[in-house]
Amino acid sequence: MSAPAHRPAPAHTPWRRRALWAAVLLALAAVFGLYQRPDFLVMLADQAWACF
Predict the structure, then answer these.
(1) pTM beyond 0.85, yes or no
(2) Over the stretch 2-49, which tens digit does the pLDDT of each residue have?
(3) In this structure, are residues 3 and 9 in contact, taking their beta carbons and an 8 Å threshold?
(4) Is 29 within 8 Å of 35 (Cβ atoms)?
(5) Of 43, 20, 21, 41, the residue nearest 32 (C-alpha)
(6) Dist CA 52 CA 47 (whole Å)
(7) SS (H, E, C) the chain
């Protein structure tokens, strides 16, 4: 008789999924905060224009 097959744990356990969503929301909040600063937008546009 063979031993039962070992099934690995799913990659996205509930706490991992919550942590992933928290990181995504934190990144979106940071981007939104940067867009509230006009000087940042001007600097970003200048840097993008300098690439061409």
Answers:
(1) no
(2) 666 777 766 668 899 999 999 999 999 999 998 889 898 899 899 999
(3) no
(4) no
(5) 41
(6) 9
(7) CCCCCCCCCCCCCHHHHHHHHHHHHHHHHHHHHHHCCHHHHHHHHHHHHHCC
Q: How far apart are CA 8 and CA 3, in angstroms?
A: 15
Amino acid, single-letter form, for residue 29: A
Distance between CA 33 and CA 25 in Å, rounded? Answer: 12
- Name the one residue in this structure whose structure tokens are 């006009």: 38
Q: Which two tokens stand for residue 40?
A: 């940042």
